[in-house]
Design goal:
By secondary structure, the protein is mainly alpha-helical. The protein has helices at about 1-25, 30-55, 60-80, 85-110, 115-135, 160-180, 185-195, 195-200, 205-235, 245-255, 265-280, 290-305, 310-320, and strands spanning about 145, 150, 155, 235. It is found in: Cell membrane.
Length: about 325
């Protein structure tokens, strides 16, 4: 309970920071856009931690779930004027349904590690091609959501401030879910599966079922965020099925520290923020500079601490005589 109380205090401080940040950035729309983009990425990375960090499954389908959520929410709004608040729920259901249809046979037949990674990665180009050919939802053309300068029902705003607050609320919620699950029986089961799946099975843990639970929860959250992403961008297009996003999410989750609650979002805010800033400011002069930056930082982290940023912080804290518990 003492540890949980400390974590709740951390979440409270984060909430205050997120509330005050748009006030500090209100005179610079670009920085507000940057903060919104990085928070969007941090939400997905923290969600990925459920399947990748806890269960140890290298999932590369985040781009597929984002696209499904975006198309479900956007199509319901464009065709039937269904509020995106309901559309996001439907988008999460669509994403988790596809995840179940892929995950059940995959886990049932014991596909692990690189084979599971390849299976999940294939979902992104398959769905992208399918939606390119599906004329009823727009095919290769962009379909624009109705424009409103300020509409809570349609989730359309002319400022990024509201989107930032919504994403911040999601981010705090996902962190709480990570903390909560990590301290439940299912959390211990998932960590046991990550460390040694065969040993977990010998102990009587139904590894397939618990991996499927983690996959469904992760895909549902990412599908909901995909619906919000459609409202932020203002359109739906097959490009929302972004394989690079899937790779980026997995890399940030791994480098942040598998199973760590704080590590993945921390590295996302730092590394993602600097890389995005370099891309937007110096990208016109040196194309791909942000990717070079990504590569150098990742190589340094892997060389100095293969277990990720969270383990690196733990070592530094112990070196300076301060007790640190992985959060």
């Amino acid at each position: 309970m003492r540890i949980l109380g400390k974590n709740m205090l951390t979440l409270l401080i984060l909430s205050i920071v997120f509330i005050l940040l748009p006030v500090l950035l209100q005179f610079n729309n670009y920085y507000l856009f940057l903060a919104t983009t990085i928070t969007f990425l941090a939400v997905i990375v923290s969600s990925w931690n459920l399947i990748g960090g806890f269960a140890g499954q290298l999932d590369l389908a985040a781009g597929a779930y984002i696209g499904l959520g975006a198309y479900t929410t956007g199509t319901l709004l464009i065709r039937f004027n269904v509020t995106p608040w309901l559309g996001m729920i439907a988008g999460g259901l669509a994403a988790s349904t596809i995840a179940f249809l892929i995950g059940y046979p995959t886990f049932r037949f014991g596909l692990r590690e690189v084979w599971y990674a390849l299976s999940s990665a294939a979902l992104v180009p398959i769905l992208r091609t399918l939606f390119l050919l599906w004329e009823d939802v727009g095919g290769p053309a962009e379909r624009y959501l109705p424009y409103y300068s300020w509409s809570f029902y349609h989730l359309r705003f002319s400022t990024y401030t509201v989107y930032f607050y919504i994403l911040s609320a999601f981010f705090i919620l996902i962190l709480f879910i990570n903390i909560f699950i990590k301290r439940l029986k299912i959390g211990y089961y998932l960590l046991a599966i990550r460390e040694n799946e065969e040993a977990a099975e010998m102990l009587g843990i139904d590894t397939r079922r618990y991996k499927l639970y983690a996959l469904i929860l992760y895909s549902y959250i990412v599908g909901m965020i995909g619906g919000l992403y459609a409202c932020i961008t203002g359109y739906i297009h097959p490009s929302h099925f972004d394989f690079w996003l899937s790779i980026q999410v997995a890399v940030l989750g791994i480098v942040g520290g598998l199973g760590s609650v704080a590590g993945p979002p921390l590295i996302t805010f730092v590394l993602g923020g600097v890389a995005e800033y370099l891309r937007s400011t110096l990208g016109a002069y040196i194309e791909g500079l942000h990717l070079i930056f990504y590569g150098i930082i990742l190589m340094l982290i892997i060389l100095f601490e293969p277990k990720g940023v969270s383990a690196l912080i733990e070592k530094i804290a112990y070196r300076y005589g301060r007790r640190y518990r992985r959060f």
